[in-house]
Each structure stands twice: as C-alpha cells, then as structure tokens.
Amino acid sequence: MASGRRAGLFAADASALPAPAPAAPEGAPVLAPHAARIVKGVLDGSDDRALLLLGSPGTAKTWLSEHLAAAVCGDSTLVVQGTAGTSEDAVRYGWNYARLIAEGPSPDALVPSPVMRAMTRGSIARVEELTRMGAEVQDALITVLDEISVAGGA
C-alpha cells in the first residue's frame, strides 16, 4: 500500500452494491457475492475511504477482511476487537505512565494502538465488531480515520 494512505477499516454497505452476479459454476470458489467489486476497489487504490463489511453472522466478513489485509499489506494482525469496554486508547494510543513520569512526553512513552501502527506503516488495520463499541470510541475512530498519515510514518 502506498505511503501516506490511511489505515483501512473494511467497509462496504451491502445495500449500496448492485445485485449479486449469477451463481458460480459448481466447484468454483465463491468468497462473497460482491467479492470481485471489493477486491477491485482495494487493489485499484482509487479510494482512500474505509471499507465496511456489513452482514449477518457467519457471512465471512472476518475471513474476507483478514485475507484482503494479508493480500494487500502482508499483515492481517493489526486488529482492534470491539466490545462495550473498548476505550479510545484502542483506536488512538495510550501512555506508558512509568516512562511518562520518568521521561516526560516522548515517543518512547507512547503505546501505539493497532490503528496508529497501521497508519505509521501505511498499512491496514481491521476493526472487528465496530457496533459493539461505545459512541465516543466510534467518534474517536472517525476522527483518526480523517488523518491521512502519521507524521514521520513510512
């Protein structure tokens, strides 16, 4: 992925997509009805927006996001797991308070989130179960995704 691109959140509202293509021939692999469009959008790189996979449980959203991240960046491990207890630190950064007190604010005292690490590398971060996070955490994520890159990042 090109330097300066934002961290991606896999997103595509199924209602905005055209009707699925006809069924694949028997024996052909089928990832998702709109997989070709999703892959084209990711590989084309013409869109810096996040990608949201929305669907019922068991529809391979996590599988697809893992494989797209691995295919595009070679890494699918930068993940924020959303729960009711997920804090803003999970999408921004935290502090190592012992270092912060001893050394003051510095890059060494920062504890980067998976999203911050992805933005620094020009990579993809995945956010699982976004709707389980509190509204304030979702708002923080939107603010973070508005940033193009992290200063000094790759």
Shape: globular
Spatial order of the strands forming the largest sheet: 1-2
Low-confidence stretches: 1-18
User: Would you list the SSEs in sequence order as H and E?
Assistant: EHEHEEHEHEH
Number of strands: 6
What is the number of helical segments per DSSP (H or I, 4+ residues)?
A: 5
Strand content: 5-15%
Q: How is the main sheet built?
A: 2 strands, parallel
**In which range does the helix fraction lie?**
25-40%
CA radius of gyration is: 17 Å
Number of domains: 1
Task: State the end-to-end distance.
Answer: 11 Å
By helix and strand content, what is the structural category?
alpha/beta
Topology of this structure?
Elements: E1 10-12, H1 35-44, E2 51-53, H2 61-73, E3 79-81, E4 93-95, H3 97-103, E5 110-112, H4 114-121, E6 126-128, H5 135-145
Parallel strand pairs: 1-2, 3-6
Antiparallel strand pairs: 4-5
Account of the 3D structure:
The chain has one domain. Helices cover 32% and strands 12% of the residues. It is built from 5 helices and 6 strands, in the order βαβαββαβαβα. The chain has helices at 35-44, 61-73, 97-103, 114-121, 135-145, and strands at 10-12, 51-53, 79-81, 93-95, 110-112, 126-128.
Properties at a glance:
5 helices, globular, two-stranded parallel ribbon, disordered N terminus, 154 residues, alpha/beta
